[in-house]
Fold:
Amino acid sequence: HVLDNWGPNIIRLFCLSAGYSKPIDYSEKLLKENIATLRHIELCYYGLKQANDLRDTKEKIGIAERLVSDARNEFDAALNNDLDTVGALGAFELLVNVTVNSLIPEETLTQTSAKIILAEFERMSEILGIQIINVSDAEKNEINQMVKKRDECRAEKNYEQADKIRDELVGKNVSFIDHKNKTIWVKQEKIKAE
Structure:
């Protein structure tokens, strides 16, 4: 029932947020609290994968390297401290939240910076067991074309057609976030209980 309705990542986040030495109090409310965390994780991953700015500077690369170093040190220290999964999850969320709340919206994420962050993101998510849905190249191209067409419809003020494309994407479990100069799409894990 839980797996069918909430999916594997919500269950993993729920268990990791308690720590192994404490009893886990199961409730649907506590599972639901992890949806926002999962959506941020998914947005971070796809935002990193879709970074296309080539204008690297030492400052931008330095920000990414410091972020990764701080998060890695905190993550590893937590796991080495009696397998503190709560602390490790907090370090992972630090990496995710800075990327999602600062770097992506401000459009300061370059391809080089994204690769630096993505390598650590993938290491941490693998250790925590968080599995992001991957899309095939064919599906990626189809989604990119649909997002491009939607952006064109919006530019032409054809909002009805833009909404139809959005609804079609939502039907494929794809959400998107519009930023000033680009749209980032995210393939989301389906959660029936949402």
About this structure: The mean pLDDT is 93. The chain is about 65% helix and 5% strand.
